[in-house]
User: Fold these one by one.
Assistant:
Number 1:
Amino acid sequence: SIAYLNGVFLALDEPALPIEERGHQFGDGVYEVIRIYGGKPFMLDEHLDRLYRSAEAIRLQLDSDRAFFQTIIHQLIDRSGLADLDIYLQVTRGIAPRNHTFPNCPVSISMTAKPSRATPVELKENGAAVWMHPDERWLNCHIKSLNLLPNILAKQVAADNDCLEAVLVRDGYVTEGSSSNIYIVEKGAIRTAPLTNQILAGITRIAVKRIAQELDIPFHEQPFTPEELRNADEAFLTSTTLEVMPVVRYHDDTVIGSGKPGTITQALSERLSALTL
Ligand code: PDD
């Protein structure tokens, strides 16, 4: 494991930031989680596109270009000596005396490179359980903001109930997971919430949509209700760290579909794994 902070490579546990850093005090920043497979970043262009979009959405002026991020990421991979990594990348509005209005200082750029948090194979093979939770987040969930308190609180309730993920519900519809996108399969078609300010535009979602098109599986971007999730033929989550994770139980007792990972879910999962080889 290794880290990068404002031009310097350092150990992950090295004390590095002054107390008055805006990410630390305000959560005033944005982030990305990027997966490295066999030394190669997966969909890095899409991650950087989203990083610039998030920065712009919070009026954070990011002068570093794509080549800069690509270079640091490749240096982190080399220095780590690892092939399968999670890169965490964070940009904040910098280091300045605490004051809500924007400071006039350089942004802080930090990254960590750590061995990939591989999901237990058993969970992937058998499928996961999810827990419904009210979506208590703000109205700019398309921004990959550092402010994750509602996400953390929801996911902890899920974990307290032995579920892998919290599925967030707003105005009667499922938006997404606390740190993933969610999909159902009905009569051979995939359904997931459309890209609005209510969900994060997942990079794995882009990959799954492309795969669905390739495999001629209809991909409908329409929201669904908790009831429709309960009655779906199949359900699954996606994220950079989970990849395609089958969902087979709801609130620990209701079985979704056959109670086993569905055939379309498995086809998507296999195709995605093939892309990462
Ligand atoms: N989370 N929705 C939310 C709220 C997320 O936090 C994430 C990712 C996703 C899936 O996006 P992607 O496919 O680009 O990983 C959807 C990351 C992994 C995290 O916070 O650790």
Number 2:
Amino acid sequence: MPDPTHSAESQTMTNTSGDVPAIEFRDVTKRFGDNVVLDGLNFSVPQGQRITLIGPSGSGKTTILRLLMTLEELSGGLILIDGDPYTHEYKGEKWVAVPEKRRRVVRNRVGMVFQQFNLFPNMTVLENIIESPVHVLGKSKAEAIADAERLLEKVGMSEKRDFNTNQLSGGQQQRVAIARALAMDPEILLLDEVTSALDPEIVADVLDVLREIAETTDITMLLVTHEMQFAREVSDRVLMFDKGQIVEEADPETMFTNPSHERTKEFLKAVL
Ligand code: ADP
């Protein structure tokens, strides 16, 4: 359960003000058994910003994204999306879980692209992209197809529209996965090491697609990546994690050229 030290007033933010962060973690704790992966984590992502999480393997970066997709349950603390309680809310003088129906509405504002693509098997490219807009958002099939075709154009995959996804290369599957996430019109896009499973020569194609999305939309993005040059180009801010804690937070220029924390220097020396 959340730490009830926060005032009830702090839970009444609305999403009408531009000052409300797109994402806010308050005192978030996540344990797997005895393993405390996140320990009282606080951070927020302003609307429209691109934030990159860096840090050694096992430092809790993917867990943060999975909590935001409600693929994991919190052990403590709160997550708010656009100021709306996402996990727990203060009601009748006690903390209660946000009802699943309302949580789903908020979750639909969040899209995620995974390292291993996670496309629906035995479906065509087009079917993958229209599935959720039709079945979750209730779009008409014609509208969903028109949107999907526009997105396939954007990610350079129009010619593969009717291919089964198992006929595609890794890079092509990842471009379809990006189009599928965008088809849900997310306000927030989570990108979890989306190029790590790809052959080096196609990494650049996928990064080009993401760069264009960053340049042409105002979607809030939270990225976990080992592509430091890409992180440097597209991020507004970089957070360095170690053992579930933020050890340093800076603009990309400072983080990559003049980090102040020893742990960051050590990490960057190993990966750059
Ligand atoms: P990162 O993305 O920084 O590599 P993760 O968030 O994937 O780190 O993992 C953080 C820690 O949580 C690791 O110690 C990992 O073993 C543990 N962990 C992640 N997912 C699970 C799970 N489903 N069950 C048990 N432990 C997990």
